[in-house]
Automatic annotation (TrEMBL), chains A, B, C:
Domain Tautomerase cis-CaaD-like, residue spans: 1-130
Name of the protein this chain belongs to: Tautomerase
Gene3D superfamilies: Macrophage Migration Inhibitory Factor (3.30.429.10)
SUPFAM superfamilies, per the entry: Tautomerase/MIF
Species of provenance: Mycolicibacterium rhodesiae (Mycobacterium rhodesiae)
Length: 135, 135, 135
């Protein structure tokens, strides 16, 4: 259901670190937002050094943008963003000063996965059960 | 007006399939949201195999993210997302289980194209007429 | 705080033009939205010629997508998008007809930078002061 898009300059994260970060984002999202890991997508955009700027100068931030369904309780989203930001530094070693995490959202019924409209937050279980039953 | 961003692993879609998918997304959006095809943009991000993860493992989903103007009737957006998801599998052969379509939105007046603030949904005709008249 | 993502076909913008555009977007955002330039990020995605379509045909638009915090006054966002669109053409020479600027937003507390939840619009000063004081 969610998509996390991580943007860095090339060679900032090696392949193992990308895999580790993808694993952590998946674990955290799955735990907090009640979504099986099989529905959590993480992609990495690795750009050239002269394609990333902060304050108008070439820079090396780690930008993480996540899309989630609208309607999760506020406290849950706050916990999500906090744990993702914390994991980003813990897994990559990039200091928090260069890490920006942004969560965006839109209604669950504006999204389709596996041929089915996504469930609103809180209705995941029935949705997953129907998926398993092939109904 | 809209932008559709399709993200896959490299070599998932060949050039002809990308062109076909761009054509179908354009046709569908134009028909349902009353926007001439000349205003429909489709871009493809083709990432390395170790830059795309599902469930924390390298994977090959087709992720389609569309931006549209806020204010289209709900039923219209539901139809839009359904037809896009259906076209994605029909055109690419990628099974629905690996396709995620997400529509996001923001107000039309948060966007400018051709030097002019975009029209709210329903006001496209007057906007296009003014464009043609150069007024 | 904000992230501006500029998408073009490769070789549309040379390195100097990218730097100039990043500089202008930073200056404009900083001035209008009261954010120090050190918090303004600009990234460029340069795609292959057969990865960008308008009206279902390969095309060369300049697509600028900005993420900002929800809650800026409407007039401020209107000014922001107008000045960014104007700067895009002025800096790159790409005619307005091929430039699309879209601003998206989500709540400030859905984002973390430097380890701290972002301030709501209007509360930047206290937030920056606390940052400087290390409190």
């Amino acid at each position: 259901m969610p998509v996390y898009t991580c943007t860095t300059v090339q060679s900032t994260l090696d392949a193992q670190t990308r895999a580790n970060l993808a694993g952590e984002l998946t674990r955290i999202h799955s735990m907090i937002n009640h979504v099986p890991g099989t529905y959590v997508n993480v992609v990495f955009h690795e750009l050239a050094a002269d394609e990333v700027y902060t304050d108008g100068e070439p820079a090396k931030p780690l930008l993480i943008n996540g899309w989630v369904r609208t309607g999760h309780p506020e406290a849950q989203t706050s916990q999500l963003v906090a744990e993702i930001a914390s994991a980003a530094t813990r897994v990559t070693g990039i200091p928090a000063q260069r890490v920006l995490v942004v969560i965006q959202n839109s209604p669950a019924h504006f999204a389709i996965e596996g041929g089915r409209v996504l469930p609103a937050p809180g209705e995941e279980e029935a949705w997953l059960r129907a998926q398993r039953d092939g109904s």
